[in-house]
Amino acid sequence: MANTQIAAARNGTVTEEMERVAERENCDPEFVREQVAEGQAVIPANRNHDALDAMVIGREFATKVNANIGNSETTSDIETELEKLHTAVHYGADTVMDLGTGANLDEIRETHVEHSPVPIGTVPLYEAVKQAGSPEEITTDLLLEIIEKQAEQGVDYMTIHAGILAEHLPLTDGRKTGIVSRGGSIMASWMEARGEQNPLFQVYDEICEIFAEHDVTFSLGDSLRPGSLADACDEAQYAELDTLGELTRRAWEHDVQVMVEGPGHVPMHKVAENVERQQEVCDGAPFYVLGPLVTDIAPGYDHITSAIGAAMAAQAGAAMLCYVTPKEHLGLPEEEDVRDGLAAYRIAAHAGDVGSERPGARDWDDALSEARYDFDWREQFRLALDPDRARDYHDQTLPEDNYKEARFCSMCGAEFCSMRIDQDARDGGEMERLDTETDLESSAAADVNLPPTGTHRSGSDALPEVDACEESSVEHAGDD
């Protein structure tokens, strides 16, 4: 039997990682074990990732957020990549995917694993293209060699584009935006050039054996996901999803954990349908959604267009959300874009958890609302998702310390502040005073639904200070 989290769970064993997950999720370790054993949750935890602070991804747990980083041909130094990693973790990423395509990939990847308290994901197909020189020159031996190497380096989960098959390609002919997944387009190009079936599909069992040896989690890539609203829920997308369901079950037969990636552009009325269909087809395996963007008209604001869909997907049962930055489709995100993207997605994840009535999730909201009503500005800032941003906005117009005690802000002023008027009316009239107080210390919420954002028990001390990240940039979050 494989020495993996799912194998241990099926054998009735509660691992150290399950104990830690239960602590972070504020639940019974036995419940974690049951969810992992049934394939309804995954704990991405490569045995070679010593700095990892174990976490869980599953619909019965708090919704998680992934951030994509990685180098390019022009930005390849390790220090910059570590700054990107710290920026992502500091602003609340639960996992980080390294989508690097530049130089020194092995050294950078090993450094990420050495320092990261969150799971590290990769797309080995990118390195295969880089080594081969073009998609058409990739061989199955090269794919297996790179996958095994990355597993040995400590990568916790990998996107494997094994679900796109040769018979699916004609189904994309009527689309507006074709194949927008980078990995999907590479595999389609390979199959078109060679006239053969997807090599990742052909050697899938060998990949499972490698993953079982190192306890790497599958993130099955949705190579035919829609890149525009017009292409959402089409025959190509759902044909691949059926294959992903088959691949999920095959991985489970090898005692390998699986999550399944989901669509990028979906109109609002189709978001829940996508989640429900994936859960049915893939037997409840965790759904990892990329967005989804609910409109195509807002370049420069796609962290908003996608966070709307992400919140809806989280409420419907998606387990993890892949963030989108304001630079999506436009250019290389920088630190502030990453900050904005992660804020949007932490909001989406939290809103989804509140909407699905996750235990204790709303306690954070209630505590901040009480601080706001009491004009406890310092407590508002402390409880804010991004305390620095909240404080900076307040201080732009009322910077002096005495305004931290004021019963108004610059939006309404003292005379027209509704909360001040309400308080005064309660003090001198028949309406009851409001004296509720939420105790976050005793909240049933999971860690990610409690302040502060971006805290981990281990590994974070080895990361560079966030102040050193001012000049860094972060690789495009787009299609993997």
UniProtKB/TrEMBL annotation:
Record keyword Lyase present: yes
Binding positions for Zn(2+) per the UniProt entry: 265, 329
Documented EC number(s): 4.1.99.17
Biased composition (Basic and acidic residues): 427-436
Domain of life (superkingdom): Archaea
Pfam families in the cross-refs: ThiC_Rad_SAM
Leading EC class: lyase
Binding-site residues for [4Fe-4S] cluster, renumbered to this chain: 409, 412, 417
Listed GO MF terms: 4 iron, 4 sulfur cluster binding; phosphomethylpyrimidine synthase activity; zinc ion binding
Region feature (Disordered): 427-480
Keyword Isomerase carried by entry: no
Pathway: Cofactor biosynthesis; thiamine diphosphate biosynthesis
Residues given in the record as substrate binding sites: 68, 97, 126, 161, 181-183, 222-225, 261, 288
Known cofactor(s): [4Fe-4S] cluster
Catalyzed reactions per annotation: 5-amino-1-(5-phospho-beta-D-ribosyl)imidazole + S-adenosyl-L-methionine = 4-amino-2-methyl-5-(phosphooxymethyl)pyrimidine + CO + 5'-deoxyadenosine + formate + L-methionine + 3 H(+)
Stated family: Belongs to the ThiC family.
PANTHER family (alphabetical): PHOSPHOMETHYLPYRIMIDINE SYNTHASE, CHLOROPLASTIC, THIAMINE BIOSYNTHESIS PROTEIN THIC
Protein name per UniProt: Phosphomethylpyrimidine synthase
Organism: Halopiger xanaduensis (strain DSM 18323 / JCM 14033 / SH-6)
